[in-house]
Amino acid sequence: PTSSKYRALLARSLSAVPVYRREAVEHFQKAIEIDPFNTTVHFLLAELYEKMKFPWQARALYQKVLEIDAENDKARERLRLLDAAAGKKSTGRRAFLDRLFSPSSK
Questions:
Q1: Rounded distance, CA 75 to CA 67, Å?
Q2: I want to staple 28 with a disulfide (CB 3.0 to 4.6 A). Which of 3, 13, 45, 71 is the partner?
Q3: What is the 3-state composition of the chain as percent helix, strand, coil, each rounded to the nearest 5?
Q4: Residue 103 pLDDT > 70, yes or no?
């Protein structure tokens, strides 16, 4: 099908079932090829990437949404949450390394 809307609806349905998520990604990507300025499809694919634990791919799509529509508050919020999650992970890792390599105060 050459309809972006059809591809997006199919992808959204498939994404609800974990074993079909890769296929859903393919359909979302096709929908984006057909209509590259459809921010909804970019956003839905980004959400799916988050569910699949691929935040770096989600980030790129949220940024693309903001390139197309700078006023998109949902994409801006999702980026903020991704940044916060990344900060927590790196802070935890940094704290562990600090304890591991810092001289003990005995």
A1: 10
A2: 45
A3: 80, 0, 20
A4: no
Q: For the chain, give the number of residues.
A: 106
Q: Is the dihedral of CA 55, 34, 7, 1 positive or negative?
A: negative
The least confident of 30-34, 38-42, 82-86, 100-104 is 100-104
DSSP 36: T
For residue 89, give every residue at least 6 positions away whose Cβ sits within 8 Å of its Cβ, in sequence order, or none: none
**Cα 4–Cα 10–Cα 16 angle in degrees, nearest 5:** 135
pLDDT digits (tens, 9 = 90+) for 44-78: 999 999 999 999 999 999 999 999 999 999 999 99
